[in-house]
Design goal:
This protein is mainly alpha-helical. The protein has five helices and two strands; from the N terminus they run H-H-H-H-E-E-H.
Length: 156
Amino acid sequence: MKKWVDRFNGTLLALMFLSTFYQVLARNVLFTTAMWTEELAKFLFVYIVFIGSATLMENEGHIRIAILSDRLPAFLARWHRLFVHLVLAAFGAIFVWSSWLNVLNSWEFYAPSMPWFRLAYLYLGLVISGLLTLFYLLLNMARSLFPGRFSVSRAN
């Protein structure tokens, strides 16, 4: 699944590049303004960051403070890791729920320079990112509880 998410993020990055390239081309060659390109690039950047941060959760690539967990015995470190994952999952559930409420509350609003783009689509990216993060958190919890059963596949 990570391969598909990475391909999706790569596609979004290409769209962001094309949008920015068109903005520069329109301004300097066509002598016109394309205000929608800047806004689209910002929204695509939000999607790239949030979906990319969700994929970091699979290999626990986020920044962490390991002073306590590195000094614990293996048995306690495993339970400490599980506790951290439970706290993160609780936060993730609240994040997904509040993002979904933002989707519902912003359905009638549109981006100022793109009348076809509902602001709810922006918040929908946060919902997708949160669900993906929760999926990876649950997978990591299963790895903590059942070591060796849910191994990380390094093949692309």
